[in-house]
Amino acid sequence: MKAEKMAADCWQLVAAYVPVGENQKAFYAEILHKMNEAGELRQQRIIDAATGINPVLWFILIVGGLINVIFMLFFGSENIKAQIVMTMLLSMLIGLVLLTILIMDFPFSGDVSIGPRVFKEVLPGLK
Fold first, then answer.
1. Does 1 share its domain with 48?
2. How does 85-112 read in b/e, with b if 16+ C-beta sit within 10 Å?
3. Per-residue pLDDT tens digits of the chain, which is 127 residues long
4. Nearest one of 49, 41, 29, 39 to 6, comparing CA atoms
5. Which domain, by its residues, includes 95?
6. How many domains does the chain fold into?
7. Which of 20, 22, 56, 109 is most buried, most CB within 10 Å of its CB?
8. How far is it, in rounded angstroms, from Cα 120 to Cα 114?
9. Are residues 92 and 99 in contact, defined by beta-carbon separation less than 8 angstroms?
10. Does some domain include residue 119?
11. What's the pTM value of the predicted model, to 2 decimals?
12. Quick check: is 125 in a domain?
């Protein structure tokens, strides 16, 4: 991957550098700290991109939606058509919420995702 090669090149540059003097040693230590932090954050983004919502949470969301729809049936209306429309609208709303959660489940992949453009805007040196 391009990012892995860039990171390896950066590490080679840093490894080849020999600080002279206390100021350079302090900056070198900070550079090492920041590069380690960047590596950890990248690894966390990779993990976040590969994992989604826990299946137990999906179960709770779906069962909770079904309970809400069933609960609607206990609010009897004198007008059965109005009752059906209200139940259908609630079902559609719950379905849309679940669809939104599903679409946004993987933040770094898919149509609705955080793309490289965002990182390039935050870090202008990557352009």
1. yes
2. eebeeeeeebeeeeeeeeeeebeeeeee
3. 777 888 888 888 888 888 889 999 999 999 899 999 988 988 887 887 777 788 899 999 999 999 998 888 887 778 888 888 888 999 999 999 999 888 888 776 767 777 777 777 777 665 5
4. 39
5. 53-105
6. 2
7. 109
8. 11
9. no
10. no
11. 0.56
12. no
